[in-house]
Write a structure and sequence with these properties.
The protein is mainly beta. The protein has one helix and 18 strands. The strands form four sheets. A seven-stranded mixed β-sheet has the order 13-9-8-18-17-11-15, with no helix packed on it. Strands 4-1-6-7 form a four-stranded antiparallel β-sheet, with no helix packed on it. The protein has a four-stranded antiparallel β-sheet with strand order 10-16-12-14, with no helix packed on it. The termini are far apart.
Length: about 240
């Protein structure tokens, strides 16, 4: 909007009392008629956030441009009335809209439950558990594991990530390594993409011994949110 002659200060009155909790209104004063790219942020153009009661100083023939940016909370709409000060003479009004649009990256998969893989070394039997991670669009997400010994020896943790379900339990001398699994140590990370969402876990132990450990899988890409907790077990078997 252009500034009428003789105006020295203007005030933008935001009608919706809940507006400031959801969005910010910005302004910029120019000496010539401006042209801004609406795809850039107001701050990138040197706009100033408009706080409650913020008076805008202007001079004759100035142009004042207003912009709005949401806080990723919720959509909001408000009428804004611009008045001159101190006489509160209305100079103009407009409506600002903040809308929610979909399609942004989402790092949160749907809930999963891997169950408890185990290895019975006398039987040469590996029980594998797998889950398909769905519902996320961030490509890729990063997962981490922690391994906490519960009792006895500490079982090894192995993982396979695939576009198809890789969880095939087997009963022979083939180890998880020979099946294409990757060993994970505590605090290790690995990545999962939407197109390769199957994650399978196996356990193993070199030598003889029995033990249980608790595995916690966290989503590093989602603030280290816990995806699942399960046990891995090495047992003699032979029963």
């Amino acid at each position: 909007m252009s500034v009428p002659a003789g105006t020295r200060q203007i005030l933008a009155l935001i009608e919706n009392p809940d507006f400031n909790a959801t969005a910010d209104l910005y302004y910029k004063v120019d000496t010539t008629l401006p042209a801004y790219n609406i795809n850039n942020t107001p701050v990138s153009y040197g706009f100033t956030p408009l706080t409650a009661g913020n008076l805008i100083s202007v001079q004759n023939n100035n142009y004042v441009t207003f912009s709005v940016m949401g806080k990723n909370v919720a959509p909001v709409t408000s009428k804004v009335t611009v008045v001159s000060m101190p006489d509160f003479r209305q100079l103009g009004s407009f409506t600002v809209d903040v809308v929610t649009v979909g399609g942004g990256p989402d790092p949160t998969p749907n809930p999963v439950n891997w169950g408890d893989p185990f290895y019975a070394y006398l039987d040469g039997f590996w029980s594998i558990t797998s889950q398909e991670l769905t519902g996320f669009t961030t490509d890729p997400i990063t997962l981490s594991v922690t391994i906490q010994t519960v009792s006895g020896v500490t079982p090894e943790l192995w993982v396979a990530v695939s576009a198809e379900d890789p969880a095939i339990s087997w009963n022979n001398s083939t180890s998880p390594f020979d099946q294409g699994y990757l060993r994970l140590f505590s605090l290790d990370i690995f990545e999962v993409s939407p197109g390769d969402g199957w994650v399978a876990f196996a356990t193993n132990y070199i030598g003889f011994g029995e033990g249980i450990a608790t595995v916690t899988v966290r989503n590093v890409s989602d603030g280290n949110a816990i995806l699942d907790t399960f046990n891995i077990t090495v047992t003699a078997g032979g029963g």
